[in-house]
Fold each of these.
Amino acid sequence: MNRKLLLATSLFLMAMTAWSQEFKVGYTSIDAIVFSMPEIPQINADLQVYQKQLASQVESKQRTIDTKIAEYQQLAQLGTAAPTAMQEKEAEIRKLQADFANFSQKADESLSNKSNNLFNPIYVKVQNAIEEVRKEKGYGMILNAGTDTGGIVLAAREEDNITKAVFEKLGVPMPVAPEGGAPAAKSGGN
């Protein structure tokens, strides 16, 4: 019985060794590629315009609230307003503040949605190029080597870096590192 177990274990180890020799793992940084795409400056400009529009609306609503509060305080100082008029002003201010909070939350969500709608097609385009390079170069898997906390590659061989090949597949020039700085994306993987 031990002999059968030893034979099965040996066969399993040989199969795993053969599999590991054929299975290649590459890496790149999807964010470094996405944020080097030629569409990014326009996307950033569009988002900035949209953000300014939303900010203007938020500021306008805040000014309205501030004006109503100032009117209320002025009436309170004069002491001539009826208690029901003061209660109505208070209720109006509370409603404006609730509307403001709701609008601010929706403005944040709207900006986030706009950003996602603008960036998602770029991520899809880059992901498709990564998949094409993976297939062409015979990699079984490509890992994200992002420089932020989203990266999962801690160390790897430079020849398994497919970043240059992905830039070539996209037809986008790869960014050059500033003098003395680290490159935005390494150049291996041909």
Note: Helices lie at 2-22, 30-34, 40-78, 83-137, 163-170.
Amino acid sequence: MNVGTAARRTGLPAKTIRYYEDIGLISPARADNGYRDYSGDDIHRLAFLRRARGLGFSIEDCRQLMALYRDKGRASQDVRAIAKSHVAAIDAKLAELQSMRATLHKLIHACHGDDRPDCPILDDMAGKPAD
């Protein structure tokens, strides 16, 4: 099948599918006319990539997960280690976001929100000490 059909069947944009080919995540066959010819296995791999990317895995993680998926002799601990590392990164990002949220709430509370020009939010961003 062509890239348009593959895109419809996987829910991925054709541009993304071509990108995945460019970086070696998939390698569809080529028809006699030179066009990409996606097989059922290619569609399955693309759906796998769509799900993995939807879970926030990086391209490199996806590359490793695809290799492990293809390796029937894999150790599940290898897959688990990648997933655990990803959860740790998510947890770190959540902590960072919670800290940002708390800081913004504090600054919003300190701001009078009136017609005066003084603004503790802008002062904080500019690195000025609080009064």
Note: The helical segments are 3-10, 14-22, 40-54, 59-70, 76-110, 120-125.
Amino acid sequence: MNLPNKLTVFRIILIPVFILLLVFNWPWGQLSVAGSVIPLQQLIAAVVFIVASLTDLLDGKIARKQHLVTNFGKFADPLADKMLVMTAFIFLVSLGKVPAWVAAIIICRELAVTGLRLLIVEQDGQVMAAAMPGKIKTTTQMLAIVFLLLNDIFFAGIHFPIGAVLLYICLFFTVYSGADYFIQNRNVFHDTND
């Protein structure tokens, strides 16, 4: 079990912690930050989410730099990412911060692209690398989740809906990158007998 894989396992372990922070109504009170009132449990959940997201950034960089790419990492790393993001969006829907239809599109796209990646690996033995639109999608997803958990930002008494803006940017890149992956890899759906 190398360091990148340990980071991936740690990220998976953080998912139930994230869930426990949001599933119960903890009597921890609220915190006022820059004019925004944030339930303390959401603040702690945001910190856990940030830590988990940073392990995603680190494990990939370390694995590539030190040539520590393993089959476990190829399987568990993207799975951990999807589990973390899908869990966050489901809870943001339950908190009334994300429309259910937006979360449904994001979750369906993640599942569809994961299936496509499996087909490509089965046919070509190659792992489909993330293209730039997919990287933008992931970055805006992570940032949107954090800002939505933190109830956005207030500055001089004015509310800036950064989380909502990032959410719809993320939605655009979710659809665009998903369509792009399927268009670029449409040949995996052609049977060799055709």
Note: Residues 36 and 154 are 6 Å apart (CA to CA).
